[in-house]
């Protein structure tokens, strides 16, 4: 095993057809690859190789990261940026990922050498944090509830550590050099103004999280709010906050599916970072239901992450790491498809604001919060869960910065037959 790093680097470059973009350190302490002060990819154990050989592509790499068999020393963002061409870009182009080339019969010699280096042991079991035992049809009520629980019911204290006092788990809206809490408050207020909330309005907050939008709408605008979530932990936390704010007479938090809301119409609906859970097969149904829950003239603010269109949309698949460890069954749609679906449901889409750079800034603040309280985060969840969130948020920040994904706010109106939308003549002045 002497000088495993040089052997690994040579084999990797043969398999990939290009030099490694980061320095590599192997389990025997040897190093190879670009010298200098850049990040170092550390393989702590040969198990990492076995994971990636048995599961070529992103899932094997993810399992090695979650288990702690792979780590990065130095700037994680720079490492992800350098590796992106070998992981995500290659995955999109060839359906493979970092080690997709092991399937190529032309490099069987290199594969055999890699297998010898990895050792003869069987593939390790997946980390305990990986999703298992999904039941029910994709995006059925039962399966959606399981997916939401996997992502959100990991402890409110953990989320409070990452998100900070605002307890908002969606893209903030940055102005100058404000704090994360300032930017999240400004985002909530922007949404309230786009919805033209006023005293006594009924607001439905779909995917209400820990209650931040509901509290802001009730406290600052006098709205009466119904917030719905599938996470019991979120609901309990939100109800406690609302009681402490003295707003229990204005806000009701329900553990309820958006398909089961019986008591429309509402004056306004906010859906902030929830539509990513809906899925393409349900998206028209989602739009139809929200349209039906609004009164004529009511407004919808749909805040949603988007992806770039694929040349072959049938070939689109969710990243294996995200699906297995972060958002089970989550799906992203291109911005144009979302707009068209809202229009097909009857909405008049009046404004689309793209704010992807804002999400990169938000994610970097969340990562900084996590890293500053790392030991506590591990105690609150598990080493694997903390590693999942660090990689997921840092990789997402890089993806927003590189324009691989975006985030958009759609303001749509259930315009009545008269055609009176209720919006002012001047663009981006949300009330008369």
What's the short version?
This protein has 432 residues and is an alpha/beta fold. The chain has helices at 4-16, 47-54, 58-67, 76-83, 88-94, 108-118, 141-152, 156-163, 180-194, 212-221, 232-245, 283-293, 320-326, 335-344, 356-372, 374-380, 383-401; strands at 23-25, 31-32, 40-43, 70-73, 202-206, 224-229, 251-255, 266-272, 294-307, 333-334, 348-354, 405-413. It is built from 17 helices and twelve strands.
- Count the beta strands: 12
Largest sheet composition? 8 strands, mixed
Count of alpha and pi helical runs: 17
Gyration radius over CA: 23 Å
Approximate shape: elongated
SSE class: alpha/beta
Return residue spans where pLDDT drops below 50 for at least 5 consecutive residues: 90-99
Helical proportion?
A: 40-55%
| Percent in strands | 15-25%
Q: What's the end-to-end separation, in Å? A: 73 Å
Please tell me the overall pLDDT: 90
Order of helices and strands: HEEEHHEHHHHHHEHEHEEHEHEHEHHHE
Describe this structure in words.
The protein is of the alpha/beta class. It is built from 17 helices and twelve strands. It has helices spanning 4-16, 47-54, 58-67, 76-83, 88-94, 108-118, 141-152, 156-163, 180-194, 212-221, 232-245, 283-293, 320-326, 335-344, 356-372, 374-380, 383-401; strands at residues 23-25, 31-32, 40-43, 70-73, 202-206, 224-229, 251-255, 266-272, 294-307, 333-334, 348-354, 405-413. Helix 10 links the parallel strand 5 (202-206) and strand 6 (224-229). The protein is elongated, with a radius of gyration of 23 Å.
């Amino acid at each position: 095993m002497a000088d495993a790093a040089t052997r690994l680097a040579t084999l990797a470059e043969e398999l990939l057809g290009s030099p490694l973009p980061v320095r590599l350190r192997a389990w025997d302490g040897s190093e190879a690859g670009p010298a200098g002060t850049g990040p170092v990819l550390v393989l702590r154990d040969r198990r990492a190789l076995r994971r990636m050989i048995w599961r070529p592509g992103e899932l094997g790499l993810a399992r090695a990261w979650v288990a702690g068999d792979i780590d990065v020393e130095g700037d994680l963002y720079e490492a992800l940026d350098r590796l992106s061409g070998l992981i995500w870009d290659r995955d999109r182009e060839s359906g493979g990922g970092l080690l997709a080339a092991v399937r190529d019969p032309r490099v069987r010699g290199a594969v055999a050498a890699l297998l010898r280096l990895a050792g003869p042991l069987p593939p390790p079991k997946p980390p305990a944090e990986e999703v298992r035992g999904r039941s029910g049809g994709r995006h059925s009520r039962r399966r959606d509830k399981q997916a939401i629980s996997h992502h959100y019911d990991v402890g409110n204290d953990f989320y409070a550590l990452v998100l900070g006092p605002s307890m908002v788990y969606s893209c903030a809206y940055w102005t100058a050099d404000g704090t994360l809490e300032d930017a999240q408050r400004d985002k909530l207020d922007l949404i309230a103004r786009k919805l033209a909330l006023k005293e006594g309005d009924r607001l439905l907050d779909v995917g209400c999280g820990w209650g931040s939008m509901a509290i802001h709408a009730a406290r600052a605008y006098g709205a009466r709010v119904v917030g719905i979530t599938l996470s019991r932990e979120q609901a309990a936390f939100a109800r406690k906050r609302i009681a402490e704010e003295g707003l229990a007479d204005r806000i009701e938090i329900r553990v309820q599916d958006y398909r089961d809301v019986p008591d429309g119409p509402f004056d306004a609906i906010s859906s902030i970072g929830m539509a990513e859970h809906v899925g393409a097969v349900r998206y028209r149904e989602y739009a139809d239901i929200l349209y039906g829950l609004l009164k004529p003239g009511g407004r919808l603010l749909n805040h949603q992450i988007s992806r770039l269109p694929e040349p072959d949309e049938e070939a689109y698949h969710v990243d294996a790491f995200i699906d297995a460890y972060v958002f089970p069954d989550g799906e992203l749609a291109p911005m144009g498809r979302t707009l068209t679906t809202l229009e097909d449901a009857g909405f008049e889409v009046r404004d689309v604001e793209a704010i992807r750079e804002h999400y990169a800034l938000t994610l970097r603040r969340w990562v900084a919060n996590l890293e500053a309280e790392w030991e506590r985060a591990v105690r609150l969840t598990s080493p694997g869960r903390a590693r999942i969130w660090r990689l997921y948020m840092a990789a997402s920040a890089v993806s927003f910065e590189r324009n691989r994904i975006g985030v958009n706010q759609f303001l749509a109106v259930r315009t009545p037959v008269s055609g009176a939308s209720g919006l002012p003549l001047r663009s981006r002045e949300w009330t008369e």
